[in-house]
Amino acid sequence: MTPHAPRAPYVDSAAGAAVKAADRAHVFHSWSAQGLIDPLAVAGAEGAYFWDYDGNRYLDFTSGLVFTNIGYQHPAVVAAIQEQAGRLTTFAPAFAIEARSEAARLIAARTPGDLDKIFFTNGGAEAVENAVRMARLHTGRTKVLSAYRSYHGATSTAINLTGDPRRWASDNGSAGVVRFWAPFLYRSPFYAQTEAEECARALQHLEDTLAFEGPSTVAAVILETIPGTAGIMTPPPGYLAGVREICDRYGIVFVLDEVMAGFGRTGKWFAADHYDVVPDLMTFAKGVNSGYVPLGGVAISAEIAATFETRPYPGGLTYSGHPLACAAAVATINVMEEEKVVESAAHLGEHILGPGLRELAERHPSVGEVRGLGAFWSLELVRNKETREPLVPYNATGEANAPMAAFGAACKKNGLWPFINMNRTHAVPACNVTEAEAKEGLAALDAALAVADEHTVQPSAHRAPM
């Protein structure tokens, strides 16, 4: 498989060079050593694909950063943004605006339980910041418990809650955050052999952590319903319900982060729907409007909303509930209903991606485990299936990361843009990709995994825990 040529108007190498030169001269990129990166100049995108100025087209198995849940440039959403811009481009958040009110109504109609009040933000990190602030004010407590192997955003509180190495440079140790181990049977920190053991031991570990921290000092426990960037580890049956019970027992606010897993990504409107769990606060962003205009928010329970009925909530944003972003959300949610995008994601996971990825795992020695739901999957790449040693070390860079770099290059050579984090590749295409497009992606992964297989080794004497 080779990259396909896009429509002729997008082939302009000179324009691409100019875009890239301006980028290199003036754009400061996130999470990067500026002089060591080489960003691709993108000329356009449509549906599940994007292309560069030289005519190379890529099937996007990243959905941007797992946000284009309905693909790029959906005409109904583009039209809604254009129509809203013609009617009312922007307005301050203290007023009642039709697009804002309707977006909140549609979101509240789909959130679980009584999460009927919506506080709008510009993205997921701000949603987490405000959810934690609400929990602290509601309880009068300070500490927040979050899991290792998690990502909650890059703003001050959110980065301190995050459980991956991106936190390290900003972790000042004074944010009131205590971390614990959430369940992950494949690399169990509890030496569990079954999902039931992993669930029970993870819940006991959380209980023990609370006992030593003092439950009366803890405002909230925050979890990604299904961790995203950290590895798409679906929780074992009973775990989230167990966390809910623990939080109820100690008067702790339970926060679920659905920034990545929400809005159809897992084959349900929210991942919490798979587990019949209702949190006190739920954060969202990304898929709420397919990332077309920045938008995030917090869905708030009746009890916590009542805390601020006569007491002012001390938080806000200039662009909270921006009309263009909310109009895009309204259109996106309507598209998802009309085109059955949530059902499509469920079908994709059950009949195409799930079986296809598991078949790849059977044939490739580099694939240690396949995990996921809907359009939300992860392949754990290993040097050896018996020892489960990761294909590259934890947080590897440079030469140590060479096997994953080679795998990524092979994906791109075969027309697939991969989502890679540490020793994993995630299969997270748009939720409405066609079966043919999904199978095209699986074929490209098949070819690239042959490159990863070259870096596998014979069983070693130890099993790596990371």
Describe the structure.
There is one protein chain. This protein is of the alpha/beta class and 466 residues long. The protein is 37% helix and 16% strand. The chain is built from 13 helices and 16 strands. The chain has helices at residues 13-26, 63-66, 75-87, 98-108, 124-139, 156-161, 195-213, 239-250, 302-307, 323-338, 341-363, 402-413, 435-453, and strands spanning 42-46, 49-52, 57-60, 117-121, 143-147, 177-180, 218-224, 253-257, 281-284, 296-300, 367-373, 376-384, 389-390, 416-417, 419-421, 424-427. The strands form 3 sheets. Strands 4-10-9-8-7-5-6 form a 7-stranded mixed β-sheet, with helices on both faces. Strand 15 and strand 16 form a beta hairpin. Helix 3 (75-87) packs antiparallel against helix 10, helix 4 (98-108) crosses helix 10 (323-338) and helix 7 packs parallel to helix 8. It is globular.
Brief characterization of the structure:
Helix content is 37%, strand content 16%.
In what range is the share of β-strand residues? 15-25%
N-to-C SSE series?
HEEEHHHEHEHEHEHEEEHHHEEEHEEEH
Provide mean pLDDT, rounded. 95
- Largest β sheet strand count, sense and barrel closure: 7 strands, mixed
Write the layout of secondary structure elements.
Blueprint: H1 13-26, E1 42-46, E2 49-52, E3 57-60, H2 63-66, H3 75-87, H4 98-108, E4 117-121, H5 124-139, E5 143-147, H6 156-161, E6 177-180, H7 195-213, E7 218-224, H8 239-250, E8 253-257, E9 281-284, E10 296-300, H9 302-307, H10 323-338, H11 341-363, E11 367-373, E12 376-384, E13 389-390, H12 402-413, E14 416-417, E15 419-421, E16 424-427, H13 435-453
Parallel strand pairs: 3-14, 5-6, 5-7, 7-8, 8-9
Antiparallel strand pairs: 1-2, 2-3, 4-10, 9-10, 11-12, 12-13, 12-16, 15-16
Helix pairs in contact: 3-10, 4-10, 7-8, 11-13, 12-13
